[in-house]
Structure formats: structure tokens, C-alpha cells
Amino acid sequence: MIPALDLTHSDFVQQxxxxxxxxxxxxxxxxxxxxxxxLIYSQGMPKETMAAQLFSVENPSVSIFAGDxxxxxxxxxxxxSEVTGQMVANFASGGAAICVLARxxxxxxxxxxxxxxxxxxxxxxxxxxxxxxxxxxHLQPAMSEAQLAQGFDNAxxxxxAELDMGCNLFAFGEMGIxxxxxxxxxxxxxxxxxxxxxxxxxxxxxQETVVKKQLLxxxxxxxxxxxxxxxxxxxxxxxxxxxxxxxxxxLAVAEAQKPILVDGFIATAAAMLAISMAPNAKQYMxxxxxxxxxxxxxxxxxxxxEPLLQLDMRLGEGSGAALALPIIxxxxxxxxDMASFSQAQVTQVVG
Length: 351
Prior knowledge:
By secondary structure, the chain is of the alpha/beta class. It folds into 2 domains: 10-57 and 332-344, Nicotinate-nucleotide-dimethylbenzimidazole phosphoribosyltransferase (CobT), small domain (5,6-Dimethylbenzimidazole Phosphoribosyltransferase, Chain: A, domain 1); 61-325, Nicotinate-nucleotide-dimethylbenzimidazole phosphoribosyltransferase (CobT), large domain (Rossmann fold, 3-Layer(aba) Sandwich), CATH 3.40.50.10210. It contains 16 helices and 6 strands. The chain has a 6-stranded parallel β-sheet with strand order 3-2-1-4-5-6, with helices on both faces. α12 links the parallel β5 and β6. α6 packs across α11 (241-255). The longest helix is centred in the middle third of the chain and has 20 residues, at 145-164. It starts with 9 loop residues before the first helix and ends in a 7-residue tail after the last helix. The model has no long low-confidence stretch (mean pLDDT 96).
């Protein structure tokens, strides 16, 4: 059960921000973000405690979920499925973009094998395998009910372990050749959109391949007759093993009332499923960036949310979410440390 965000202290937080030494609202989205974060972090606190409390990010964690997709055998990507495993090995050795960003910015990095073609024997990779690959979803459901349930349970355990280590900010990324096709299918099914509205170029495929992706998704939608009000059916039918873990992890973090930094196209597809399953989950989400994948902007519009960044990125791996950490920290620093007009003995600016 995910509780709604308690807004009891909303006016108090807003007043504290308004009385900082600045023109009213002059820090724009940074103030909106600060208020959102403080309300999440202060859940259950009495006002007296909260008034003296400093809020900060502690032990931030980014988990990269990897899984292979049966639909990839249809040639929906510029890369073969074997690249998923090769990139997982690259994560484990610290050579990928997310590894560089995690080291630079101070994220603890989890690498999770949710079901890639060949398991990697490496102490840095968590084994949460649901299989070697999903089934080709244009021919049959991507996974079984048992695999779906196991993925949710795996994710809940991972989040519990992170909470035990003091993590209070979570980000999730992914790796999986073919997963933009899966995300587009999820978007189409949830929002009753034609695949031509949700399918983009992914890793940079040709227009011919884009059309192929659209046709495969149309075939899958016709086959499964998905109900937009049944997100679990959608996830089981056209999802991926890494997406299952992301959805389960987001729900577990929201249940623990901690903030979730949502990455790009695939992560937002997972967020949309999580919100469809538990609408209160959205109140704990911060959308990190707008991907250059054509469907992502439409997803954000459908969710009625504004991302923190727009850098024309389309890498995945949680890279956009990782980059948002300094903005999160800056918003909290403004709330904690910036003087009020009375503290600084500055004449209050009105208007």
C-alpha cells in the first residue's frame, strides 16, 4: 500500500522558501523541487521537528537492470542481443557512461542481471535472472505470471537492502537490446496510441527499421488485446525482465516514501506502469530529463510532468537520472542554508 504524500506542512515549507533573501519565486523550478523533496523527506515528522530539520541526500543509489528481449531477433536494433551482456560486463568493469557519472557524482551503483542471454560470473553483478530472454511478444506473452511476480519480489528485496544501507534517493536505469520497442509497446497499450505515435529510432535505426518496429507492435497489440486499465497484463505481455524490475523497484521505493529519480524513455514507461498500478506512486517521482527518443516527450506530457534537464540524451543506463543529483542537492541546500530576510537583516523584497 503506497500512502498519499501528506501535504500538512506544505504551507510551512512554501513560506520558508518565500522568506529567503531573493525575489519571490526567483529560483523557479529549483524552489518547486525543494518543496517537493522536503515534503517527501518530512513525512511523519511533527512540525516542531521539521522546523529545525536539515534535509539531505544520503547514500544515493542507482540500479541498472539488464535484460534481453525476444523481439530483438526481429532486427529492431542496430545491435544484436549479445551486446546486452557485453555492456553488463562493461558496467562491471567500470567503463560505461553510468559508471563514470556514478563515480564522479557519488552514486552507489548496482548492476543487476534480470535475464540476459548468458549469465556473467562477476561479483559486481547481482543475479536476479528470470530467464535468458523474454519471448518474442508479437507471437506470445513476453513472460509468465510467475516471472512477473518473481521480478517484483526481486526488486522489493533490492530496495529493502538499499534502505537498510541508509539510501534515501533512488534512481533506476536499464540495458537491453530491443527495449525501446518494448517501451513503445507499453506506451501504446497504456495510452491507446498507434505505434507510429510511440516508436522512435531507439539507438539510431533506419526509417525502414522504425516501420518494422511499428508493425511488430501492431501485431502484438492485435494478438494480446490489451486492456489499458490492466497494467500487469500489459507488462506481462509486452514488457521486459529489466522493466519488470524497474516497476517493482519504483513501487517499493514509493511505499517506503522516498524520492525516485526517473530516467528516460524506458524508465518512464516503467513509471507509467507503476503509476497505473498505484497512482500515489507518482507523488514520490522526480523526472530527471527529457530524452531525445521521440516518444518520451509525449510520455511526459501524458503524465503532466516537467523534467529537470533536456540535454538531447538517449543513452539509457540511468545516465540522465544520475546527472540530476547535483540539482537535487542544490535544491535542498537552498532550503537548508539560504538565509531569510530577517536572519540576514535585509529589507524584504515584495512584488
